Amino acid sequence: MDLFPLSELVEFLEANEVPRPITLRTNTLKTRRRDLAQALINRGVNLDPLGKWSKTGLVVYDSSVPIGATPEYLAGHYMLQGASSMLPVMALAPQEHERILDMCCAPGGKTSYIAQLMKNTGVILANDANAERLKSVVGNLHRLGVTNTIISHYDGRQFPKVVGGFDRVLLDAPCSGTGIISKDPAVKTNKDEKDILRCAHLQKELLLSAIDSVNAASKTGGYLVYCTCSIMVEENEWVVDYALKKRNVRLVPTGLDFGQEGFTRFRERRFHPTLRSTRRFYPHTHNMDGFFIAKFKKFSNSIPQSQTENSATSTPASLDLPDPKGQVTPKLENSNQPAKKAKVAVKTKQQLQKRQHPKKASFKKQNGISKGADSELSTVPSATKAQAFSTLQDSSQPAAKATVMREPKVTGKLKQQSPKPQSSKKVAFQKQNAPPKGMDTETSPVLSLSKTQATQKPENCVQPLGSSQGSEKVKQQLPEQPSTKAVFQKQNGRRKRLKTPTTSALGSSRPPPAKRRKSQSRGSS
């Protein structure tokens, strides 16, 4: 409805219900049109010349004999071919001794027409992706006496890789068939917008491959003809405009003196102004199948550099092979994984260091200092720190040698140690009973024994701290210590509720009750 005015639309729809007249193309390799017309008239065929634009065509009105089984047909004097199918070959205008590619050749009508215009000279490469349809091509070429043609079975999208450097290329692209509804009425019902867009995508790929197969440096050629038996803009002007942007080609006049000009604007789309040189043919105006013809001239074999990346999406690799860009992006994503693994390794290493050095945590348990109170620790003199930590450093040895001694020389070592975030009391208790990761099972019991002794020293062994002068300073600066039972409950019961985020971060399953901890600590001691 957007293609035609309302009155013309009705004529187009009515013309689709009427069959097109039967037309013949004379095979000038074997006979002349005048001799063929006389022979068919003698057999009871009513015919006339096709038109002024064709020198070989005949239109058949009626016949008393089957037009496809006459002796002249079997001898290869003519070919049954629609009038619109002769136009692309006329626009291609092949010359003798050229190399020509017919990318979608079945059933061979246009190929044989090219051969007769070249007078069986040069080379024609007739290709089709459907092996079954190639059988009709072989039969027709043998019957018509074509000897300069090679038949190949390739996907047209692979063709620049197979062979290239042709003087001229004819691309009769597969399409939705909206111009031949009179031949195939099923098109009215079995084609929808998705099918048309799918055909348009395939046509863009084939057209780029066909352009790449043309040799722009050819002395006589460098031309390409693109045609479809469709009237849809999505399959015609849209595809041609796409090729103009992607390759170094330009549109030239087709050489046909009739037919309507192509669209330069349709709905919201705007096309290149040279699309006026393309030609459209309609059933209701030209009494032939709906057809579209565009002729390109390739002026450079190079592909525009700024558009090579975008052309990868329209090349045949986009359907069957992964996109070259798609192979790069996963590597970039996977390249972040080593960095993440390194961060995780650093965190686990820090956790292991915390587990291997529980002295600071046990010291905080003795004096009732919570996590994050590093500023309070900094107020305590270094001498008191050394005196308090001297008892804990020696406790890391086996239980037989765990004696309490006061060594003031340790202050230098303690100052060199960098302050690290302290773990909670609950985590310290779990570290006492669970061996840390990466440590042997032989050393873990010794560490657990020493840790439990270090935690029990505030309850049972208060005499070394009380006898030293540093302990008096600690008592003055820190609040009074409650009884041993209250200290134990404070360490294992009440502080536990405040430090649940740290335990969840280390992935502990569940916190054991206070009584259970007390029994475990006594049993381990």
UniProtKB/TrEMBL annotation:
Residues reported in the UniProt entry to bind S-adenosyl-L-methionine: C104, C105, A106, P107, G108, G109, K110, D128, D155, D172
Compositional bias annotation for Low complexity: 415-426
A Pfam family: NOP2_rpt
Principal cellular location given in the protein's record: nucleus
GO cellular-component term (any): nucleolus
Basic residues: compositionally biased ranges: 340-363, 513-525
Positions of the UniProt region annotated as Disordered: 304-525
Family matches, as PROSITE patterns: NOL1_NOP2_SUN, SAM_MT_RSMB_NOP
GO biological process terms, semicolon-separated: maturation of LSU-rRNA; rRNA base methylation
Gene Ontology MF terms in the entry: RNA binding; rRNA (cytosine-C5-)-methyltransferase activity
Subcellular location as annotated: Nucleus, Nucleolus
InterPro entries in UniProt: MeTrfase_RsmB-F_NOP2_cat, MeTrfase_RsmB-F_NOP2_dom, NOP2_rpt, Nop2p, RCMT, RCMT_NOP2, RsmB/NOL1/NOP2-like_CS, SAM-dependent_MTases_sf
Active site: C229 (nucleophile)
Residues of the SAM-dependent MTase RsmB/NOP-type domain: 12-299
Alphabetical keyword list: Acetylation, Citrullination, Isopeptide bond, Methyltransferase, Nucleus, Phosphoprotein, Ribosome biogenesis, RNA-binding, rRNA processing, S-adenosyl-L-methionine, Transferase, Ubl conjugation
Biased composition range(s): Polar residues: 304-317, 376-398, 441-458, 478-491
Family per similarity comment: Belongs to the class I-like SAM-binding methyltransferase superfamily. RsmB/NOP family.
NCBIfam families tied to this protein: nop2p (TIGR00446)
Record function comment: S-adenosyl-L-methionine-dependent methyltransferase that specifically methylates the C(5) position of cytosine 4447 in 28S rRNA. Required for efficient rRNA processing and 60S ribosomal subunit biogenesis. Regulates pre-rRNA processing through non-catalytic complex formation with box C/D snoRNAs and facilitates the recruitment of U3 and U8 snoRNAs to pre-90S ribosomal particles and their stable assembly into snoRNP complexes. May play a role in the regulation of the cell cycle and the increased nucleolar activity that is associated with the cell proliferation.
Protein name: Nucleolar protein 1
Taxonomic path: Eukaryota, Metazoa, Chordata, Craniata, Vertebrata
